[in-house]
Fold this sequence. Notes:
The chain is α+β, with helices and mostly antiparallel strands. The chain has helices spanning 7-13, 20-27, 30-54, 60-70, 72-89, 201-228, and strands at 2-5, 93-117, 123-138, 144-150, 163-170, 180-181, 184-186, 191-193.
Amino acid sequence: MLVPLTRKKFEQLIPLIATGLQYKYYWGKSANFLQRLLISVIAIAVILLAEVLLRLEFGPITFLVGVMGAFFWLWYPVFQASIRNAKCRRYKYSGFFRGRILDWWITDRLIGKQETVNNKGELVIVENREKRINLEVGDDTGFSVELEAPLRNAHKVIARGQIAEMIVMSNRPDLSTIEDFSDVYIPSRDLWVNDYPYLRRDFFNEVSRRLREDQQERPRRRRRRVEEA
């Protein structure tokens, strides 16, 4: 099932400003935070040195740059998430897609390499790998997409044939060509599968609920028409 969405609803589902989950995603680990904090410290130090050595006046522009530099560690995750959201919002049309999980499988992804020295003094390259879950979601029309996300313990309940929902994006009014898609929601397990949490989940659940109710209401309307006839 593919139901076109209005532009207003699409922009509610993928907001321009980062949500809490998106902010958390780009907040990263402690190493990411320390890196941003170091940039903030360097920015403040550069401004102070410029004022002392170059005898610059502490004007409004310097104050603004100083504040932005000092709080770089705080606002940069918002900026990263907002840029990613904006890339999705550039698509002109969108739709709510409901299909099924056609297949799933586990893969390994190389996420980095680290050089270290063993007990013999030899250089050793250690590969950092991450388990990933891959989902193929589609419907009876032959349409299907593949999603890859970090493997979680909650994914143990995923099975072939389960209903899966998502938002698809296109630049065609009839959605005949799908350019991109969001994270996947499995309503029977109340489970989200994603690498990046694109959607406002409260709005998505509301759209999903209304469409389910509409589907359930349609057969009743048909029966009433037949009985009245």
